[in-house]
Amino acid sequence: MQRSAxxxxxxxxxxxxxxPAARAVFEDIQGRDEDAEPNLPEDFHALTPIERTSVxxxxxxxxxxxxxxxxxxxxxxxxxxxxxxxxxxxxxxSVLISLAFLIAVGGILVRVYNAPTMPDxxxxxxxxPDEVTRFLAAHVPPPQRGAEPPVxxxxxxxxxxxxxxxxxxxxxxxxxxxxYANQVPQDLTKxxxxxxxxxxxxxxxxxxxxxxxDELIGWSFHTTxxxxxDYRKYPLGRHQIWLRMWHPDYERNVYxxxxxxxxxxxxxxxxxxxxxDLVLENWDTQQSFFSYRTHRYNTHFGIPGYQxxxxxxxxxxxxxxxxxxxxxxxxxxxxxxxxxINLFLxxxxxxxGSKRRENFGVRPAEVIFTGAAFFFAVLIAxxxxxxxxxxxxxxxxxxxxxxxxxxxxGVAVNSVLLVGQxxxxxxxxxxxxxxxxxYWPVTFLTMLVITFLTFH
Length: 456
Prior knowledge:
Order of helices and strands: HHHHEHEEEEEEEEHHHHH
Strand content: 15-25%
Radius of gyration: 37 Å
CATH topology of the largest domain: Acetylcholine Binding Protein, Chain: A
Oligomer: single chain
Distance between the termini: 48 Å
CATH architecture of the largest domain: Distorted Sandwich
Number of domains: 3
CATH class of the largest domain: Mainly Beta
C-alpha cells in the first residue's frame, strides 16, 4: 500500500480520537493556506497538554501526508522516454485494433442484412402449373376404394393490409377467391378455412360470376394470426408471414391449388398478391409466394376414414419481410453505447495518484455508485427490449447489454484494486495504462465473437 494511504488512515484515527475542542483547533489548522504564517491558532493555548499533543501530532501527520502525496504524484509524472514511447505505440495499436474489430462487426451485419431472402426450408415454392401438378401428384394420398376422387379448388389471395399487433400476432386483411368447376360436387362447401387464425374470419362475399365452366366467388376477409417468429437475430432477423389454408370439406379429399393464372407475375420479388400501397411500419416487404407444406396429424379429427397417419399437402401463401434497422439501432443501442463511453472516461480519470482521484472525484465509492446507476439504466432498457420482443432466449442485440454489465463490473473492480493494491503488476509502472488501452479492443472483440457465432 502507498505511504500516503497509510498516513491518511493514521490521520483519520488521530482525528477521531480528539476531543471536540482539539478537533476544532486542528480543523482551523487544516483549513489554513499552506503559504500562510505557521502560527498556531489562539484557541490552541486554551487546550490541555494532552489535547495540544494530539493536535501537534495530527498536524505533523497532515504535513507528512501532503509531502507523501506530492512525492507520489511527482513520481507518477516522471515517466521515462521509453515508457512514453511505449504508451504512444500502445494507444495507436489500441485504436487500430478497435477499428479493425468494429469494421469486422459492421461488415458481418451489412452482409447479413443485404443477403437475399430465402423461403422457409419447409416450403415447396410453386410458381408454375407444372410445379403444382408434380407436387400434388407426389403427395396427395390415393383415395380409398369407393371414396370420392380428389377435388382441386384453385384459390387466390390479394393482401391489402398487414399489421404486427404483438411480437407473435399479425393482423391480415384483403381478398380471397376460388374457382369451382361444374364437375365439382354441388354439395361441396364453398370457402376457405385458416386453421392458425385466432378466430375464423367472416368471409364477406363481394362478387360471384360465371366464367365459362367455372363459378368465381370472391370474399373480403380480416383475420388475426398467431405465428412463431424467430427473434434470436433481432434486429437483423427476418419474418415470413404465412396464411395456411384448408378447404372446409378437407375430409372429402379436397385440396386447394394456387390460382396462378390470376397474377401478372409469379416471381416472388415482384410481390404477387400484395397491394403496392401496403403499409407495414418499420418493415420492408421482400417476397410473396405460394407454397406447399406437408403435415401428418396424430388424430383423424373424429372423421371415419380420414387417413391421419399420411402426409397431407397444404397450401400456404407467404410474405417475407425485413426489418428497417435505423429505428431499433437508435432506440436499443443508445443506452449501452453511451454508458460504455462514460465508463471509458472513468477509466481514463482513475489512477494510482490520490491527488488525481480527488481532482476528478472518482474515488472507488463514487465509481461503485456510478456503476450501480449505470447498471439500473441498462437493466431498464433491457427490460423494455424484452417486453417488445418476448423471445424465449437472448436476442442478438441484447448481448450488448450483457457485455455492458461485465464492463460496469470490471471498471468497479479496477477502481477498488487501484486503491487496495496499487503495487499490483498491472498498475505499478504505467498507472492503469493497460486497462485503458485494452478497454475498447476487448469490448469490440467480444462483440465480434458474439456476432460471428450468431450469424455463422
